[in-house]
Every structure is written in C-alpha cells, then in structure tokens.
C-alpha cells in the first residue's frame, strides 16, 4: 500500500494548503465537482488510496449550487441525471455519498460535521470554480488537495500558455507514454459507515424543484446524462463512427463524430477511458490519429489556454496581431447587422447559419465544423468584434450542453480573435487577417443542403 507521502507526490495531485493531515479525523472526503463519476475517476481513486493508507473510509460530497454561471435548466437537468449513476457506483465500491443542495451545499459546513483527515477535489481551470477551491483551502480545517483528473497530461506540467497546437503537441506527445494509461480501480479497505446522522438527498427525487436557476431553456432530450449513457455513446462511436472519422468529422450532414462532449464536460466519462479505448481498437490508424489529435492535443490546448489566460472568455484573450487587424477594419461597412435577439432566434438571411443555431438551441449540441462557421459569422454581423465575442460566449454557454467549458472559450477565441491560429491573407473587409469562412466555401466541403434539410425535419419534430 502506498504511503500518504507517495500519494501526495502523484503528478496529478496539488496540495492546496500547508495544513497537516488530521490523523484523528473520521474519513477522507472527496468533494466531487468536475469529475462526476464513480469509476475511472483518478481524484476519487487518490482519495481511496489516501483513506486506505490512513485506514479510514471515504465519503463523497456533492453540493448542488444555485444559479451556476451561465447554467440553466438544460444543464442542471443533464447533470442531475448523472447523479443516480454516481450514487449506485459509489455504493458498489463501499464509498459514502452525501448529496445536498443550496443552501446546504457548502463543503466547509459539511466538513465541520464529519471532521475529515483530508479533503480531495477535482481541478477545473475555470475561474469561478477555482475561486471556490481557494476559499475552501482557506476555510477548511483539514488538509486539502486537488487532482487534475480530467486531462491526460497534468496541465501544470505544461507550465505556461502555449500559442498553438504546434507548440504544445510535442510536449504532450512526449508525456503520453507516461500518462496515457487506464485508470486502475482502487478498492476501499474500510467501507463507509457512520454513526453521524448526515442529511443527504436522494438523487432520484426532484432535486431541481425550488433550486433557483434560469429555466427558459428546456432539457436537451436527445442526450441523457450519466456514466451509463456515456459508456453507450462511446461504444456506439467505437463500433459505428471511429472507422472513417478522419473524413466524416467534417461532414455535419452525417453524424460522424462521437458526441461525447456533453459527457466530458460534466465528467460523466473520463478522458483516459476514451483515449485508451480508441487506441485499442483496430480502426484505421489515420482515424485513431485524427481523433486523438482532437481529443488530446486540441482539448488540452484549450485547458492550457483557460488555465494560463485569465481573460479566456473575453475579446482581450486574443492575439495582438488579431486585435491590430480587427481595429484596422473596425469601421468597415457590414453587409448585414443583426441584434443578439435575431441571432438567438435564428433570423438571419443565411440558411446554414440558422440551421446551426437551431441545432444548438433545439438539441443542445452543434456539429464541430459548423461551430467555426457560426462564431465567425457573428464577428461579421456585429459592429464590434468585442461585442461579437461576448454574444458568441453567451449563446454558446446558454444552449450547448457542453458549453461553459475550456473548449468553448478556446473555440470562440480561435474563431474571432485568432487564438491558436495565424494571420491569413488576403486581407478581407471586417475580418482583416482573421481566417475567413464563407457559405460558398463551407458548402463546397460538405452537403450543406442535406444538413439544412435535416435540421428542418428536426424542427418539425
Ligand atoms: P469529436 O470530434 O468526437 O471529438 C471528441 C472530443 O475531442 C470532443 O468531445 C472534445 O472534447 C474534443 N475536441 C474535439 N474537437 C475539439 C476542438 N476543436 N477543440 C477542443 N477540443 C476538441 N467544445 C466543447 O466541448 N464545448 C463547447 O462549448 C465548444 N464550443 C466551441 C465553439 C466554437 C466556436 C468552436 C470552433 C469549437 C467549440 N468546441 C466546443 C470544440 C469542438 O467543436 C467540440 O468539442 C466538438 O465539436 C464536440 O463534438 P464531439 O464530442 O462529437 O467531438
């Protein structure tokens, strides 16, 4: 069995306080935030390993907050669907589960009740989540660690903001032999039982009733949250879609991608499970390579961006050359200008853009190829690039199930402010040297008519 010091030295772990372990504590608490799953969860396994070293049980705490940033009923609904799988999986592993909601959702109050030896949580580079952990580190009486469990290569090892896939790729590839392995399940030595009467909600009950949140955006019925559903979606991808992914992924008229992004965003499935499953198939090497490039290099470049660029969701996160060129074209006349409401209601002159917006609003997910086109057109149809950036973030976060994610902030920054991209010629009105996409060029790449018809059929129900 590993000692506590060996566990603390795991490259995925960061000690967030200098407080020493409370060896007289009753348990180890895992404060589940980003990695909402009971298996293939490195942070939970580290909590179990630490508890085993201390001969204590583990309890998982999940606190449902109200009005989470840019979250609405659609996001909450998907998230709580996943909690039943969490409860069942933890019970099988002999791990306790305490689920509370606002105003009882506070980790510090919970820990004052159970008096843990150690508290462990997930890392998440988004600033609001990070603020919660800074407060926890200050106020928790126990020692507090975080675990970077939703990336393949621990993000702090990449050290600084990288400017492009080409600069981060060699660094990530160098680390893959060390970090791209399955997450081994660690068995508990002491099963959870407590004499304390700990109030906890049942995940099968109506958890969202009376929880304050924006409720105008309804559930995305084409996706069901949870680890079970995530594993089925991964299976479907491996058997039906991985073969041919390198070509089909740029064809929104067919469903050629995994559609795992909502599950990855809520941590219903772990990145190691997905990447090792793809590696082990006998799909053509070019398809596996294309997928792992998006899934590891692009996804971890996005995490790197959000971790090291404090302005990640603003226009100011962009590259100086992009700001310069956009300023130079600020006064260019725009052929079309749309109010945010017209964009939100898909009321533009462009049928492809409208279809993409509708796919997102109706289903909670937009095809990746169209996400690029969608964001670039907002730049074209607004008077100011900063406003365009703001609107893209707001709509993306509001309607995408996978919104409010590093990938979204990096994708929008790529499309509008040149992040991880380079200057392109010839210089064009409004865009300047920002990479341009047009209806005509996009429609040459895939059958846009078939896509538009598909979304129209979806709309008719
Ligand atoms: P697949 O092609 O099956 O890829 C598998 C996984 O790899 C994805 O789920 C995702 O985690 C990762 N991935 C794929 N492409 C990218 C990429 N370009 N950058 C980073 N990671 C990638 N992704 C989100 O998760 N949330 C968002 O809110 C989001 N908004 C975006 C907005 C814009 C303007 C752009 C250009 C991209 C955005 N992306 C976002 C990135 C990407 O488009 C989606 O991750 C992908 O389309 C999700 O579909 P999928 O799971 O079927 O992808």
Write a structural description:
The chain has a six-stranded mixed sheet with strand order 1-6-5-2-3-4, with helices on both faces. The longest helix has 24 residues, at 285-308. The N and C termini lie far apart (56 Å). The chain has 19 helices and six strands. Strand 3, helix 3 and strand 4 form a beta-alpha-beta unit. It has 461 residues and is an alpha/beta fold. Helix 6 (165-179) crosses helix 11 (285-308), helix 14 crosses helix 19 and helix 15 (368-380) runs antiparallel to helix 16 (385-399). The chain is globular. Flavin-adenine dinucleotide (FAD) binds at residues 249, 257-261, 264-265, 294-295, 298-299, 302, 368, 371-372, 375, 396, 400, 402-403, 405, 407-408, 411-412, 414-415. Flavin-adenine dinucleotide binds at residues 249, 257-261, 264-265, 294-295, 298-299, 302, 368, 371-372, 375, 396, 400, 402-403, 405, 407-408, 411-412, 414-415.
């Amino acid at each position: 069995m590993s000692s506590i010091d060996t566990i603390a030295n795991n490259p995925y772990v960061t000690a967030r306080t200098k407080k020493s372990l409370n060896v007289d504590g009753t348990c180890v608490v895992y404060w589940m935030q980003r990695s909402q799953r009971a298996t293939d969860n490195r942070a939970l396994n580290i909590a179990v390993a630490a508890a085993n070293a201390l001969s204590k049980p583990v309890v998982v705490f999940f606190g449902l907050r109200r009005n989470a940033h840019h979250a609405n009923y659609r996001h909450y609904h998907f998230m709580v669907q996943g909690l039943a799988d969490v409860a069942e999986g933890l019970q099988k592993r002999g791990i306790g589960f305490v689920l509370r909601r606002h105003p009882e959702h506070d980790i510090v109050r919970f820990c004052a009740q159970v008096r843990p030896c150690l508290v462990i949580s997930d890392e998440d580079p988004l600033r609001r989540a990070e603020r919660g952990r800074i407060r926890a580190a200050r106020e928790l009486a126990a020692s507090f660690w975080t675990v970077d469990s939703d990336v393949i290569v621990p993000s702090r090892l990449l050290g600084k903001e990288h400017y492009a896939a080409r600069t981060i790729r060699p660094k990530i590839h160098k680390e893959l032999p060390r970090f791209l392995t399955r997450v081994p399940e660690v068995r508990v030595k002491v099963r959870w039982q407590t004499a304390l009467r700990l109030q906890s909600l049942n995940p099968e009950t109506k958890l969202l009733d009376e929880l304050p949140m924006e409720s105008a955006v309804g559930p995305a019925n084409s996706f069901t949250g949870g680890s079970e559903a995530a594993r089925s979606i991964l299976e479907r991808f491996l058997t039906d879609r991985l073969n041919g992914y390198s070509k089909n992924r740029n064809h929104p008229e067919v469903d050629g991608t995994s559609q795992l992004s909502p599950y990855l965003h809520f941590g219903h499935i772990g990145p190691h499970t997905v990447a090792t499953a793809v590696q082990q198939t006998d799909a053509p090497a070019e398809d596996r390579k294309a997928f792992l490039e998006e899934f590891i290099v692009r996804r971890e470049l996005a995490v790197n961006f959000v971790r090291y660029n404090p302005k990640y969701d603003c226009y100011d996160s962009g590259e100086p050359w992009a700001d310069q060129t956009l300023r130079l074209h600020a006064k260019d006349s725009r052929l079309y200008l749309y109010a945010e409401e017209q964009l939100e209601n898909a009321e533009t002159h462009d049928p492809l853009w409208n279809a993409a917006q509708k796919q997102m609003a109706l289903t909670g997910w937009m095809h990746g190829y169209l996400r690029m086109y969608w964001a670039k057109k907002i730049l074209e149809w607004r008077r100011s690039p900063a406003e365009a950036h703001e609107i893209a973030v707001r709509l993306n976060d509001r309607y995408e199930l996978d919104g409010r994610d590093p990938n979204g902030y990096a994708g929008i920054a790529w499309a509008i402010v040149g992040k991880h991209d380079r200057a392109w010629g010839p210089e064009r009105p409004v865009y300047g040297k920002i990479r341009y996409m047009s209806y005509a060029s996009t429609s040459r790449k895939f059958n846009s008519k078939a896509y538009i018809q598909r979304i129209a059929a979806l709309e008719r129900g």
